[in-house]
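Hi all, long-time lurker, first post. I run a small reading group and we've been trying to get comfortable going from sequence to structure in the token notation. Rather than ask abstract questions, I figured I'd post a concrete chain and ask someone more experienced to write out its structure so we can walk through it together at our next meeting. Sequence below, copied exactly:
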Amino acid sequence: QVQLVESGGGLVQAGGSLRLSCAASGSIFRIKTMGWYRQAPGKQRELVANVLPDGLTNYADSVAGRFTISRDNGKNTVSLQMSSLKPEDTAVYYCYLQNGPNSRFQDYWGQGTQVTVSS
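-- Answer (accepted) --
Happy to help. Here is the structure in token form:
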């Protein structure tokens, strides 16, 4: 099993910044994609950003240019630097990754961390 521990959520005013971090531990084989999803009340969970082992990144249109995702392959961590935050960024943010031996990847999720942006 793999455990994901998130940190860094909280309350911030619009225009402010927050940094989310996620550390993976346990039965780590090879981690493929690492990333962040979010879920606002009454809405479906949506992709925020993800990053491949080689550093290739992908962002939702709604956060591109404001959020930056990064990973440390040696430490099995992924971070999300969020800037110019808007009230619509308010959600529970979930870390996830794909891990497994011999390219047999499974998805793992963190417990979620609340981000609240006040107007």
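A couple of things your group might point at:
The chain is about 0% helix and 60% strand.
The longest strand covers residues 30-39.
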